[in-house]
Amino acid sequence: MLPSQKKQFEEILHKLKSIRQNFIILMTIGTVTVAGTIFFHSYPKYTEAQKDKIEIQQIDAKIKEKKTGADDIKTELAEKEKKFNEDIKDLKPILERALPTSDPTDEIAEFLEDFALYTNSETHPMSMENIAFTEPKKEGGYFVVPFRMSIEADQENFSRFMKQVEISGSLKREDFYRQNSVPIMSIESINVNIPQEKDEDPALKKSESSGEKKIETFSFSVNLQAYYKPEAETVEGK
Fold first, then answer.
1. Chain mean position to CA 157
2. pLDDT digit string (tens) for 35-81?
3. Residue 191 forms beta bridges with which residues?
4. Whose CA is closest to 180, among 102, 95, 70, 106?
5. Cα separation of 16 and 13, whole Å?
6. Are 103 and 228 in contact (CB under 8 A)?
């Protein structure tokens, strides 16, 4: 190769190296520019996505918290329902005695007889006679059982009887008669027979003067009503 040709060839190689270096520099700058442009445009979206992710996590935590609270409420309601059912189970026999599902004449008669025997004493007499029940009559969803009787008692025992009838049907244990609920009753009318004054026996006068106090009693004619409510199918069948 001639010296002139060799020199020319070296110049061409130098130019090619310069062009290659410039191309690499341009490619590097282009890559950095493109990456910077992509990052510049993508960063706000990335930041927004991060915020959305945090917000979703917070909402998810709230949902879990509310679910836990709902489970607690559900458990509490289940416990209350269980207690309610147990209370109803205990209360059912008391309720069925206070408001029977069938004619309560036997229960009423038993109560009256026991009340008279239990409250009767030398200082406070009480007796009940001529207890008579009539046929039940339907009034709405209930049946009414009218009955009447005669009572001879002092004022205190008759007041006791009136009070017991007043609280009959109560489900409160403090209102029970000898630890049992009493079938519901109502007094419709009362007639009082006041004893007339009459000549007293001298012997009676002598006992009174010696300090023995005469016990004053009254005779009452009382009209009452008892009630019962048959089960639904019984009422429909009547």
1. 38
2. 455 555 555 666 777 787 888 888 888 887 777 777 777 787 788 77
3. 221
4. 95
5. 5
6. yes
Instruction: Please report where in the chains the tokens 């209102």 appear, as a residue.
Output: 175
Q: What is the pTM of this model?
A: 0.57
If 0-12 CB within 10 Å is exposed, 13-18 middle and 19+ buried, where does residue 202 land?
exposed
DSSP string of 188-220?
A: EEEEEEPPPP-PPPHHHHHHHHTTPPPPP-EEE
Residue 95 neighbours by CB under 8 Å, 6+ apart: 171
In single-letter form, the type of residue at position 32 comes to V
Within a 13 Å sphere around the CA of 11, how many CA atoms are in the beta-carbon half? 6
Q: Count of H helices and E strands in the chain?
A: 5, 5
